[in-house]
Amino acid sequence: MSGMSEVYASVDLGGSKVACALATGDGNVLAERTIPTQSHQGSQAVFARIAALVSELAAEAGCQPAALGMGVPGLVDLEAGVVEFLPNLPTQWRDVPARDMLSSQVGCPVHLLNDVRMATLGELVFGHGSRGACTMVFFALGTGIGGGVVVDGKLRLGPLGAAGELGHQTILPDGPRCGCGNRGCLETLAAGPAITAQGVWLLHSGRAPRLHELVGGDAAAVTPKEMAQAAEAGDEAVREALVRAAEYLGIGVANVVTALHPELVVLGGGVAEMGPLLLDVVRESVRRRVRMFPTEDVRIERSLLGDKAGLLGGIVLAMKGGSIGGRKPR
Amino acid sequence: MSGMSEVYASVDLGGSKVACALATGDGNVLAERTIPTQSHQGSQAVFARIAALVSELAAEAGCQPAALGMGVPGLVDLEAGVVEFLPNLPTQWRDVPARDMLSSQVGCPVHLLNDVRMATLGELVFGHGSRGACTMVFFALGTGIGGGVVVDGKLRLGPLGAAGELGHQTILPDGPRCGCGNRGCLETLAAGPAITAQGVWLLHSGRAPRLHELVGGDAAAVTPKEMAQAAEAGDEAVREALVRAAEYLGIGVANVVTALHPELVVLGGGVAEMGPLLLDVVRESVRRRVRMFPTEDVRIERSLLGDKAGLLGGIVLAMKGGSIGGRKPR
After folding, report:
1. Fewer CB within 10 Å: N-end or C-end of chain A?
2. H-type alpha helices, chain A
3. β-strand A264-268 against A136-141: which pairing, if any?
4. φ, ψ for residue B216, nearest 5 deg
5. Would an 8 Å CB–CB cutoff place B100 in contact with chain A?
6. Where in chain B is the domain with CATH 3.30.420.40?
7. Angle of helix B236-260 relative to helix A236-260, nearest 10 degrees?
8. Which of A156, A248, A330 is nearest residue B260 as measured by Cβ atoms?
9. What are the backbone dihedrals phi and psi of residue B326, each rounded to the nearest 5 degrees, phi first?
10. Model's pTM, two decimal places?
């Protein structure tokens, strides 16, 4: 890998917090910090605070970043370096020329990407993909379900960096209305809130005694992780709800496997922390549903990098810049 | 394009017939003929007849092919040149070293590929894709539903040339049992037999008077094309059945568009001849279901090449040989 001796900066911009890191090209993190986003201050102020943070980290590490990679939770015009739309910030950003705004403040080239696609790069280069995968699919299971697709070593981007929205495959044609406007998206069936809602319902209906103990009767404390513990401890109804969600996810994974026959599928995000149940059910669903070719050679794994996938992907993005994806100028 | 002056041979091996053509590298067909497959004679005999046919065509055209591309309806080990499994021939073929068997008889290099992936190459190079698409998805709608995926100009193959089996996406999790063993595959809902079965049922139940006229009351004469004519002529129940099948296809298309944001989706095969209803419903389904990015720039078209897509793809395969796909040796 080139650029080992250079240092790069990475920024993972979220709705509530911004994570920032300085690292070498081989993924050795030199300094790292997280600050609140405070997006209500407007993009100019957010970028100023990010630039100040990068300066601090650079001073600590005693070196200047050669380039910066930033992931944002939304649509990016990759050629123009413009954030087209960030739906999840308290003040929605539209048409923010983020690349040039941030670049002028940090004094190095800036490259933008959707945050989940950036995490996909991290998984490819520093996670399970580093064992040699070249066609890989990443699912980020959190409040929503994002994704990323790598074909023959190149991130599939499309003109808006929006290819890979695997959480918005239709799994139930007449299913629940999704935030995106479609019905029955995978996200409506297997993202954190969909799973948690089932847990809360079972809690209220008295069918989850172990979960009730675990959260002290507090519905607000229910998470997929607590539900997995309750299932483990004997709450059968909770186990069924988790299996159903995991089977829906298994369909989403199976559909992409059928289309691309990848070497590797990585499940990341908070919901993936749920434990072995999720992985077991997804693996079994894929074996059962993909019948047109043998799937023994398709590895399905939980993220190695956890919540560091995005920041490490940002280092790859900073280092490789515009050459990460396979895009044709239009 | 290189190889314009060379002549190539193409073979499209089907369950009942074998189509064969000689053409220049720019797709100018010099000679073409179709013979019965007679697969019960065994693979050796079938290849001998194919080789004899190629010789005849070469004599007619007055030139020898530099290479031959052959599409087969099943799994191919691309590196070994071995047909692993052809489920649809009357005598199922297993582990037939087709590349070497045919090559020694025709006296030129032979390249194998799944037949629908070969047709995808045809559409890419000589069909709608020739207007410059580099990421393209092909659905072959016939007795089954096959497919092909092209990313950044390269056919996505996977280790068995089996990537792109788009007809085996799960559309209804608890839907009808598919021939592949899964439930609710797109193929069970929108392939020719699934559509025709609906037409026959409506015919028998007396709810398709126009269809009854068109086929003279003969259930065996019902096809998706006749059903489209009957719908046009006023059979509302037939129209509804066609719309439902097309909406299922629309979900399958929307899922792939969401994952890959291609520039082009091509619908081919006999069912696509059904007329504008299919294309209209699929386009509308994709617009309605893909909401994470604008889809105005995703063209959805009926095949330009029709049943010639496979043969023309075989010419591309012959010309480009092993460099058609993006594969990493394992």
Report:
1. C
2. 43-61, 98-106, 115-126, 186-190, 192-204, 209-214, 224-233, 236-260, 276-289, 309-320
3. parallel
4. 60, 35
5. no
6. 7-121+308-323, 132-304
7. 80
8. A156
9. -100, 95
10. 0.94
